[in-house]
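Notes, Module 5: Reading structure tokens.

Key idea: the token line is not a picture. It is a compressed description, and you learn to read it the same way you learned to read a sequence, by spotting repeated patterns. We will look at two proteins. The first is printed below with its tokens.
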Amino acid sequence: MGTRNKCGVNRQAVVIIHGMGEQRPMDTLRSFVNAIKKHLEDLDDSEKNTRLRSKADGVSEIYETRRLSLSASKKRPITDFYEFYWAHNMRNNSFQDILLWLLKLLFSRRKKIPKRLGLVWCTVWLLLLFSIITVVAVTQIVGVNKINSLLSAFVALPTLISIITLSIKSSFLNSIGDAGRYFTPSPNNIGERSRIRQQGITFLKKIHDTTSNEKYGRIIVVAHSLGSVIAYDLLRLLWTEYNESYGHVSVIDQSAISEIEIQCNKADGITNPVSFQHLQYKCWMQQKSVGNKWLISDFITIGSPLCNADYLLMNNVSFDELKNQREFPSCPPVLDDITKTIHYNSKPYNVEEKIRTVKILHHAALFAITRWTNIYFSSDFIGGPMQRLFGKGVKDESIVRKSLWFFPGGHTNYWDFDNKASLSKIVEALRLKTR
């Protein structure tokens, strides 16, 4: 077992949640871990002496995933990497499943579309109009009978049709279809959404509850693309089962909660997300000291469509209203309208003839103790800045990259070996060197 550091972390876990598409188990995890290890070695020679081991993870409901364990270095404790794999829940996507969602996006009023998606929206409409005009023009010039003959000849080429169909299914339905179905709570999608969330919550609970020499002092959740939407749902749902947990009332220091509340009550609110993250970590440590069992210190989103959640979510209630109702946790957390706090008090305890209470963070105050770092390429319109929707406590990390405006440039390349800028931001956000 590694030497315990001043933060009480002698073993830490990193949970990777993959994005949309035909993902295979372990592909995302292995590529991510290999890139992180190589980057750590470039920064610290002691990392070159570490070893990576693969073992059955013991937490997944399937037997296709494994745990990759990276031995400790001089400055980093033992680090275990897990993958929460969910793609097998999204099978047989059809146009019918996502048609309503696509039409809603397409027919949204221009002023409701986020700035980063504006050009893409205009491009799609121009292509549709061009296609309609082209079809009408060709029909007028060639004639309907001639077009029917051409179509009949085309349909007579089954091999070509199969290739085109498979291509469309692979590139569109298996990718955009996942997003459309997860974002849309229609009856056809409820089962898949629920299974993913149930499996994910069970997964994270098991990692929280590991015992003996594999007990974790800290958990980091890293999520890419659509996986970040799933991760956000898992964290906000799981937090409601942990926010009221405590066990030690003899010595209580919860000053960080008061400091956060002071920051939130200022007219200009949070002005420096880096300073706020220091405060969040202090709050996390203090909550652990009073017996709160929440171990997730960091949430890292990469190329996340959450930045456009108000546009992509199929919901009749505005996103701001849902935040105010505490359905969607923000960073920093929303204050109570009356008390102007993010906590309420436990029942009173008599400790050494002194009456004490524990401050309990409310059910949407997840990001009082969990730092949120959001990383995205400037060319990747799927990802983008998160502060617009979720608050100034999110640390947005934009990485300059050029690409055509209608192409999400770099969306699948964030931890490629040659992308030093994005890899550096990811390693910095992971904060693996806790010693």
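Here is the second protein, with the sequence above and the tokens below, as before.
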Amino acid sequence: MSRAGYIYVAGAIVLFSTIEVVSKYLQSGSTGGAAVGSAQVATLRFLIGAASILLLLPLRGQQRPVFAAARESGLSLAILGAVGVFVTFFLFHEGVDRTSASAAAVIFSMNPVFTALVAAAALREKLGMAGWLGVLMGLLGVFAAVTDFDFRGIFSRGDFLGGMMVLGSALSWSVYTVYGKRYSQRYGSLAVSFLTMTTGSLLLAALVTLKGGWGEMASYGPRAWWWLLYLGAVTVGLGYFLYFEGMRRVPASRGASLFYLKPVLAILFAHVLLGERITYRLLAASLLVACGILLVTLPRARGDTGSAPPRTKRASSA
């Protein structure tokens, strides 16, 4: 059970590590057709993702929890969806537009560290000495990724603004993770994911409508649509399924600690698939963030005595 659980979680993290790379590929117009706008990528990704999770609900026996959650906590979950999907991924995809996929992946990977900080402030969970050291290392890594230690005209640079937008998305996702935990414990992670994802994707769709962006989709080529399907059905649908199945089989904190792999994997994918340069500064930033994640999560893992309950954790990725 534990070995399979770690394999499932690791597989999910590999999929999550491709999100920034594929998003940049689509939004830069590299598919051969028109560039896919950031709002369109976010909207289609989560509309397709919500549809994919809808198909998973019967497999996990989660239809009744969905109706119960909508009836009993509909407004709260709608607010969570607005924060955790609409705000988070509007900022995320806008940020990816303005910075490299590598830097965006390193910055967004801070979300487990931010989650620990938000939990410490809101739920009074103790971090401990190792946890605070992890927070410091993660913040240093993000500082390196956002600035690249080049401060010339920094506030007018697009990459700096993009990095800050991705950083904001990581923070809003962490708020969503912490405050959504009680609903995941009550109704199940898939049910909560489906409802919040549906709310968020509808808000994103409304934004595209206001911007008159639906007509642009006629100019997308087949390759763009295949990659949009990948982002929605594979990284969201399959990725969430693997993550939740894995977290059912392993101690929760130990499973979450595997997210230290994401920044390093994303840099490698961006280098191979997009030709982005691997700089010493960005590599150092990714290692600092990875070490920060380990220091924040592993002390909690020592306190885990068994596998995580089926309905205790939300995913920690884009």
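Summary for the second protein:
- Confidence is low (pLDDT under 50) at residues 305-316.
- Residues 2-303 form one domain.
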